[in-house]
Amino acid sequence: MPEITPGESALGLPTEAAPQHSSAEMPEVKLGGGLPMDFGSGHAPASVQGAPLGTGQDDASTGDSALQSPTAVAHGDPSNMLRSADPSINTLRGDVPSEVAAAQEFERPADPIGLAQEAPNFGQSAQQFDAQPHPAAAAAMAGGVARGFPTPQPNTYAPGEPNAYVPGAGAPQFGPNPHLAADNRMASLPRDAGYSPGLQPTSMDPPPSALAIDPSATIDAPGDRRLEGAQTPSVIIQKRAPSEVKVGKPASFVIQVQNVGAVEALDVQVHDRIPAGMRLIDASPTPVQQGNILLWQLGAMQAGDERTVTMQLVPEQEGELGSVARVSFEAAASVRTIATRPALKIVQKAPETVLIGQQLEIELEVSNPGSGEATGVVLQEDVPQGLEHPKGRQLDNGLGSLAPGEVRNQVLRLRAVEPGVIQNTIRLTGDDGLTAEHTVAVQVVAPDLKVELSGPARRFLERQTTYQLNIANAGTADATNIEIAVQLDRGFTFVSTDYEGQYDPSRHAVYWSLAQLPAGGSGTVPLTLLPVEEGEQAIVIDARADLGVFAKSERTMSVEGFAKLSFEIKNPSGPIELGAETEYEIRVVNSGSKSDTNVQVQLQLPPGLELVSSDKEAGTDGRGLVAFQPQTELPPGKDLTFSLRLRGVAPGTHLVRAVVASDQSSVPLTKEESTLVYADQ
Length: 681
Fold this sequence. Notes:
This protein is mainly beta. The protein has 3 helices and 43 strands. The strands form 10 sheets. Strands 34, 36, 38, 39, 40, 42 and 43 form a 7-stranded mixed beta sheet that branches. The protein has a 6-stranded mixed beta sheet with strand order 24-32-31-26-29-28, with no helix packed on it. A 5-stranded antiparallel beta sheet has the order 3-6-7-12-9, with no helix packed on it. The radius of gyration is 66 Å and the shape is rod-shaped. Mean pLDDT is about 75; it is low at about 1-205.
């Protein structure tokens, strides 16, 4: 019989490895008189200690054979529990009656809390119980049979503390507790331990703080395929013993365990106690023993497997002897599923450039690179400025569902209407918040014509002028099939041009044609015009090319007439004798295109000549200055004549200076004429 050293549990494991279980994670099921059961590590024990047999209906149904060959069926449900009154028969079956008989006699564990004097005597004295039972016995209190859950560490409650739980201090001990009356402490014993049913049992499980979860109880990955589906192991236990034994004579007690279920039962264990009043001399197979507690670890049992445990016991006292054996096992069920993650991806393939006015085709590649189906997929496009679509600015296209790895191709056709770099963004949306988007840049290229007429802004009437017609392509694409027209105002007359320019008299316009003007290219064409009317005269230039390219400019010029005065002074008489008279004539001509006003004529006479008379009103200052009355206007092409007679008063050559001024002449005109005055010697 192997010895269990201190620090080992009834399972033969080190106490620090014995799994502890959190009460928050163990469901509690009350059996019969209310004994709590916890499902440690998520596994239900196959059986629990027997409750007293009911009132006979089950007995009557089984007959004699049930008493001679009882079976205990454990289906993984700790509530399936019945026990025969015959100590040689322990049967676990079906539903547990809620009422149990109190007249049955069972082996009792030692009194761990010193209340033996309060417990009724069932034919065995308190001294016959083990003085220090295993903690599993104190927890089960069921005829010395462990309850099918992992054996807790030896523990104790610290004296003087209300139910203070101290791990590792041996069997549970209860010290003085001011909060626990004697009858209440007594209520902590299980009902099926052989005490009066009138007591209210409570669990002696360790407090939740002392429990721990066994990390090896479950697996976080799919198990074997055979564990999938409903798992229905069913283990029965049958215990046989002679109907009568003699004191001092060995007797064989046999425990048979069989898996009558459809699948494998895991971690099958048989728990028993050495009956009070008997002595174990041999067991096959060899159990793990701690005190009078016996444990057989049978491991896994396939469906239909049967195992037998044999004990050789020697009675040492008279009376009804026996113990309750229990089988526990685990049923494991596995499930697997496929976790998928759908995803969306959108890629646009577009040309880098597109000519304005042309159609832009964008190839769309929609895919689901994920591992699950994407549903409710919608393609969304907000048409950016510079592009247009016949159906408006916001476009939606439902694609439905995309299988994992599925790729679909779509074509989006837009029209380029404005030049520049345009960012086009496509979005994908789907169920479960799936989104994806992609942006592509497309440059819309276009020619951009510029035309202007350079030259003077002010011209005089009838003065021919040559202007420069400038044309340039400031765009990003070549301009083709360019037509240039210069519309002349009627104040101009066309004179000439170059580069095959054609004048159309019916339209009073000049035309040029140009096959192509590259992007960034420019050119200049001379245009000679003659202003023929005064006033503001306009010249309008426009240029048109393919793709609807159009450019226009207008140039306004001021055409003015001008007055051009000129005069001459003549002395037709030649030299004169001293004291004789001579005649001077001044003729002023306006050869310009505009009338001149305030025309003034003045003469400065030398001292050798004096004024005799004039044909127009004139005045003198007595010092030789002669000024004619100003003339209000001198129209273009007209002239004015001023005449005066002079007398020679001193011999010599005398110089006469004439000055003509007007409003239109910024600088007065000056001319001189000389006269010789001689005297006989």
